[in-house]
Specification:
With 276 residues, the protein is mainly alpha-helical. 71% of the residues lie in helices and 4% in strands. It has one domain. Keywords: Glycoprotein, Membrane, Transmembrane, Transmembrane helix.
C-alpha cells in the first residue's frame, strides 16, 4: 500500500523546492562575474544546499523516531512532529547557514577584479587568491549536516517504514560525498577556467541524484499503487461478471415446463393441472 504520511509531506515539498533552486543556482556560476553575481554566489550557494540537506536530515530524524513503531500509520504527529513543527525545525537549520553567509557578506562585501589569463582579462570575484577557498569554507556547516545525516541514516538503515525511505536518503548522502569531494577539489585546485564549472556540475549532479531518489521514486510508487488499484478493480469486475454469467446459465437449463404466454414455473404448473 502506498504510504500517505501527512506529517512529513511538508519536508517533501521543501526538498522539491530546494531541488529546483539547485538547478537554478547553476546559472550564476556560468554567467560572467560582476558584483551582483559574486554576492549571489556567496549567499545563495550555501542557502540552497542548506534547504535540501536540512530537509533530508529532518526526514531521517523522523524515520529514526518511528523506526520501532509496528504500524507507521498509527504514529501521532504532535508538537514539533506536526507539519508546522517540522517546517520550523528545517527553517532553523537553514537560518544558521543564512547567518553564516550574511556575516561573510558584511565582513567582506562582494567585489570584482580582472585577472590576466590565457592572453585575456577575465572577471573574477575578489579576492582572487582566496575566493574559491572561501566559497568552500562557507559550506562547512552543510558538510556537518551531511556527516550527521549519514550517521543517523546508518542507524535507520534497517527500517522498512515508508517503503524504506531512510535507505534511499542514505543512498543520496553516500552518492553526495564523492561528488562534494570532487567539485570542492576542482574548484580550489583546478585551472581558473574550470573552477566555476566544477561548482555548477556539482549542483547538477547533487540535484539530479536527489530528484531521482526522492520525488521521482515517490511518483513511481504512486503510479504502481494506482496500477494495483486498477488491477484489483478489473479483477473484481471480472469476478462479478463471471458470477452473473453462471447464475444466468443455471436458469437456462431449467427442465420444468413453462407456458409461452406466462413464461413461469407457476404457469407451467397450472397448465399441467388443467391437462389432468
Amino acid at each position: 500500500m502506498y504510504p500517505v504520511r501527512g506529517g512529513t509531506s511538508i519536508l517533501g515539498y521543501i526538498l522539491s523546492f530546494g531541488i529546483i533552486l539547485l538547478y537554478l543556482m547553476v546559472f550564476p556560476f556560468i554567467a560572467h562575474a560582476d558584483e551582483r553575481i559574486c554576492g549571489l554566489r556567496r549567499f545563495a550557494l550555501g542557502l540552497v544546499y542548506a534547504i535540501v540537506y536540512s530537509a533530508l536530515m529532518v526526514k531521517l530524524i523522523d524515520c529514526f523516531r518511528v523506526r520501532a513503531k509496528h504500524d507507521v500509520y498509527n504514529v501521532k504527529y504532535s508538537k514539533m512532529g506536526r507539519p508546522v513543527g517540522l517546517f520550523l525545525v528545517t527553517l532553523f537549520f537553514v537560518i544558521v547557514q543564512v547567518i553564516i553567509n550574511t556575516e561573510w557578506l558584511i565582513l567582506e562585501p562582494p567585489n570584482l577584479e580582472r585577472i590576466f589569463y590565457n592572453s585575456m582579462y577575465w572577471p573574477r570575484c575578489s579576492p582572487d587568491d582566496f575566493y574559491d577557498e572561501g566559497l568552500v569554507l562557507s559550506l562547512v556547516y552543510i558538510m556537518a549536516i551531511i556527516f550527521f545525516s549519514l550517521i543517523v541514516g546508518l542507524f535507520t538503515y534497517s527500517s522498512n517504514k515508508n517503503h524504506r525511505e531512510a535507505r534511499w536518503i542514505l543512498g543520496i548522502l553516500i552518492l553526495s560525498i564523492p561528488c562534494w569531494v570532487i567539485w570542492c577539489a576542482v574548484s580550489i585546485l583546478g585551472a581558473i577556467k574550470v573552477r566555476d564549472a566544477a561548482v555548477a556540475i556539482g549542483l547538477i549532479v547533487n540535484a539530479t541524484v536527489m530528484l531521482a531518489l526522492v520525488p521521482i521514486r515517490k511518483l513511481y510508487l504512486l503510479h504502481s499503487y494506482n496500477k494495483m488499484l486498477e488491477e484489483e478493480e478489473e479483477a473484481e469486475e471480472a469476478k462479478s461478471q463471471l458470477y452473473a454469467g453462471s447464475q444466468k446459465g443455471s436458469n437456462m437449463y431449467d427442465n420444468k415446463p413453462r407456458l409461452h404466454d406466462e413464461s413461469s414455473v407457476r404457469g407451467s404448473q397450472l397448465y399441467s393441472t388443467a391437462g389432468h
